[in-house]
Amino acid sequence: MRSIGALLISALMLTGCGKDKEAAVDVDSMAGSAPEAKDAIQGGTFTWGRSGDASYLDPAVVTDGESVMVVTNIFDTLVAYEPGTINIIPWLAESWETSADDLLWTFKLREGVKFHDGSDCDADAVVFSVMRQKDKDHPAHVGTFAYYSDNFALLKNVEAVDKHTVRFTLSRKYAPFLATMSLFSMGVVSPTAWASEGKDKNGKYKYDFAHHPVGSGPFQFKEWKIDERIVLVANENHFMGRPHVDRLVFRPIKDARARLKDLQADGVQAMDNPDLVDIAGAEADPDLTVLSQPGLNVCYMAMNTMRAPFDNVKVRQAIALAIHKKRLIAAAYHGIGEPAATMCPKGIVGHLDIESRKPDIEAAKKLLAEAGFPDGFETELWHGDVQRAYMPDPDAVAIQIQLDLKDIGVRATIKRMEWSAYIPATRRGEHSMCLLGWMADYGDPHNFLYVLMDKDNARVGSANNVSFYRGEAYSKLVHAAQEESDPTKRIALYEDAQRILHDESPTVPLVQIPDFRVVRKNVRGLYIYPVGGEYFRTVSFAK
Amino acid sequence: MTYALRRILMTAPLLLAVSLVVFLLMDALPGDPAVKRFGEHAVSPEEMKRWRDERGLDDPVLVRWGKYMGGVVGSLDFGKSYVNDREVGGALFTKLQVTMELSICALLIALFIGGSVGILSAVFRRTPIDYGGNLLALGGISMPVFWLGMLLWILVADVFGFAYRSGRPEVEGFTTDMYLFEAMFRMRWDVFTEHLSRLFLPAITLSTIPMAVITRMTRAAMLEELGQDYARTASAKGLTRRAVVLKHVLRNALIPITTITGLQFGTLLGGAVLTETVFSWPGLGLFIVEEGVRGSDTPIIAGGILMVSTIFVFINLGVDLLYGVIDPRIRRAS
After folding, report:
1. Checking DSSP bridges between strand A523-524 and strand A540-542, what pairing results, if any?
2. Computed over its alpha carbons, how large is the radius of gyration of chain B?
3. Beta-bridge partner residues of A380
4. d(CA B7, CA A213)
């Protein structure tokens, strides 16, 4: 009995030891990628541990990250990201040109590309893949296309000019268009596979594409066991050459600690979303490498400007001055993360490099007094009950902000809500203050500054802009930037917009969290992609 | 035989009621599958309406339940998941096998250890053996499963240095999802050992609660029987202690032990959620909670619970029939 007791105690001590090393985490010194291998071996199985299973594998239908990281490896898009960056490179399209008015985009496709089923991946297939999302009567219009509605409402027409040329017609100028063409939802699907089982009585294809996907990407779908594993195998005929590993396996391991233990036992070779508290321990493990890169995300607190007292800019500024972001990061993020100064995260071209407001209790109190609240006021702070990458511990974030606000006399009651009730309630504007965040879909300021802050997106009921800020001057700048094709002028417009946002403070940007991956030491060629999912075509093992 | 048939027929209204309760509860609880499906994306109201209509989400709850039960009874069709359109029936059947295998292994461990410790505790009453048994039972029932699971994992991996991997191994060419049993049948000892090396931790973790219950029940039943006249008579006749305990007393004590074991098996099927989560064991519990409850996916929850209830009912029937085997008096009476 005694020896077992001693073992239990030592085991407990082992679990506790991560804590002491916490201070040693130095995110800046971590690499953003595992180096490409000169000594790479061909073959092997690369297993990726993640926190949940996919729901669909139809690129146009998926919305969750767990599905996205699988489809990005099965399907090709017209343009892609240079590994580990948000720079656009030619992919299925070899080159492209725009008309003088920027409304016509013509893409020249690579020749001889084949789908996994052997059929041709040509201009017709591209048109099929886009039109099935746009046209409700299309036989492959099966499912709901959330990303299409979000991003491609301005698409007027898509046509095949010849076998290897596709032309997109836009209804208005739209500068982020090229960036959006790298979105996984624009992955090109095999029309032959769709048509292979005929149509049902509604004229829709019967083929269950969402669970038996056929694309042209570096990996080919093989098997899906729900909640257990998705298996892809190397596409021998990919136009960029066969990927190094033979098999790519996605395994859901819900618990982050369990995921790390599996990694240590070589049950998986890499994982995402480690618990922040485990980072130091993983770094100290001789078999593991921690990769890190500033994440294109922002965690923020929105104040509902439709409600008093948040319709008063002085109140909003006072609250922004009261929040001590460094203390917040220490208390709720295990010291990992950077204070966010603007709603457009660092790493996106167009991010305004200003300093976050220094906490200043006296100035904040003075502003509150000028606004007519010398003794502060009572309010509510809402948050959801689900951990997000930008908010691993929502309760701790809320409590820390509550404490900060108390210093200036603002007494906030915290309301923790079930996620599926929380999101619709904030869209309807029923909150006073609420905590949310956003992760980039593509690397453009538009994705943050328009989607989260423009008055177009402040419609009660379906708002993404849950501060319901409707500044005219701001909106003009963001709309102008959307149509501006000169990059320098665009950046200037977005920077001005962020200055306005900083003064008006409808939201308080709180934290930007780095992305982490933990990989085994022998993994090579793994990059953290800032947006768009995971791409494993470059992964290999060292000898 | 008519008895068994009658019992089976009696369960039909019970299962109907269970499924109705699931539908009513899911209707009353907050949580909308559409929110889970589309997350932070704002889909247009028309698209949303079409999506909801396709699934009949705005029908009255009784209509939805009627349609669902019609499918289940008429053609064993468990419907499609709201969130990802997958056929629920096939997935449930696979998951059920996975959980069954885990539960059977856990129950065997629980029976073996719980039974032995219970007998020893009763025979050596008020000795250190008995106290140790009590402690084991108390520990087994009060340790939270997710904590114990993680602790065992750390113990095995970091203290004993065994590189434990969670989840089931990849297996080709097997027809069932009970890899352990099928590997034995096919004599594929490589699969057997690999699978066992992953199964033993969840099985041990899952076994602790039934083990505790069985220990306590065995001890109590054995004590009761040991105090009976026949036991004293047998001892007085000059039978060895061993023979009295194992041949006479244990057989009589088996009835309550069998009952509690049957009940525990049902609990295991439904209660494997936590263990399955810790060890990424892709069974029924993980499926119902991860896919069903989180996605407010009523077909998955209703189907899962129907399946567990059915199995539970059949196990209890099996237990009833076993009484006759254990105790000839019951057999004669019926």
Report:
1. antiparallel
2. 24
3. A413
4. 46
CB contact under 8 A, B153 and A462: no
Alpha-carbon gap, residue A152 to B238, rounded angstroms:
92
- The answer to whether the Cβ–Cβ distance between B35 and A143 falls below 8 Å is no
DSSP string spanning A21-36?
GGGG--GGGS-SBPPP
Q: What is the pLDDT of residues A26-59, one digit of tens each?
A: 777 777 777 776 777 889 999 999 988 888 899 9
- Cβ distance A258 to B31 less than 8 Å, yes or no, reads no
The residues with which A231 forms a beta bridge, in sequence order, are: A223, A249
Instruction: Tell me the two tokens of residue B193.
Output: 């050992």
Task: Please tell me whether the peptide bond between A309 and the residue prior to it is cis, using omega within 30 degrees of 0.
Answer: yes
**CA–CA separation, B214 and A217 (whole Å):** 55
From the CB of residue A9, how many other CB atoms can be counted at a distance below 10 Å?
10
Higher-confidence position of B51 and A302: A302
C-beta atoms of B86 and A226 within 8 A? yes
Contact (CB, 8 A) for B294 and B309: no
Distance from CA of A133 to the nearest CA of B (A): 12
Assign 3-class secondary structure to A36-71.
CCCCEECCCEEEEEECCCCCCCCCCCCCCHHHHHHH
Q: Which residues of B touch A51 (CB under 8 A)?
A: none
Question: Best residue in B26, B36, B40 to probe A by mutation, most A CBs within 10 Å?
Answer: B40
Read off the pLDDT of residues B215-224 as tens digits, 9 standing for 90 and up: 999 999 999 9
Chain A, 130 to 159: residues with Cβ < 8 Å from chain B are 143-144, 146-147, 149-150
β-partners of residue A302 are A434, A507
Which residues does residue A299 pair with via DSSP β-bridges, in sequence order?
A437, A511
Contact A506, A305 (CB under 8 A): yes
> Residues A199-203: contacts with CB within 8 Å, 24+ apart?
A199/A139, A203/A137, A203/A139
Residues of B in contact with A183 (CB under 8 A): none
- Chain B residue closest in CA terms to A52: B290
Distance from CA of B205 to the nearest CA of A (A): 15
Gap from B203 CA to chain A (nearest CA, Å): 16
How many C-beta atoms lie closer than 10 Å to residue A364's C-beta?
A: 26
Q: Would you say residue A86 has pLDDT above 90?
A: no
Q: What would you report as the CA-atom Rg of chain A, rounded to the nearest whole angstrom?
A: 25
SS percent in chain A: helix, strand, coil, step 5: 30, 25, 45
Residue A204 Cα, gap to closest chain B Cα (Å) = 14
- Per CB-CB distance under 8 Å, the chain B contacts of A7 are 155, 159
CB contact under 8 A, B158 and A11: yes
Q: How far apart, in whole angstroms, are the C-alpha atoms of residue B282 and residue B199? A: 12
pTM: 0.86
B163/A265 touch (CB, cutoff 8 Å), yes or no: yes
Q: Chain A: nearest CA to B279, how far in angstroms?
A: 7
Residues paired with B218 in a beta bridge:
none
Q: Which residues of A503-518 are buried (b: 16+ CB within 10 A; e: fewer)?
A: ebbbbbbbbbbbbbbb
> In chain A, pLDDT over 70 holds for what percent of residues?
95
Question: What is the Cα–Cα distance from A227 to B303, expressed in whole angstroms?
Answer: 17
**Whole-angstrom Cα distance, residue B304 to residue B292?**
9
Question: How many Cβ contacts (< 8 angstroms) between chains A and B?
Answer: 138
Beta bridge partners of A95: A108
CB contact under 8 A, A421 and B31: yes
Q: What is the pLDDT of residue B229?
A: 93
pLDDT in tens, A395-443: 999 999 999 999 999 999 999 988 777 888 898 899 999 999 998 888 8
- In three-state secondary structure terms, A434 is strand
DSSP one-letter string for B105-162: HHHHHHHHHHHHHHHHHHHTTTSHHHHHHHHHHHHHHHS-HHHHHHHHHHIIIIIS--
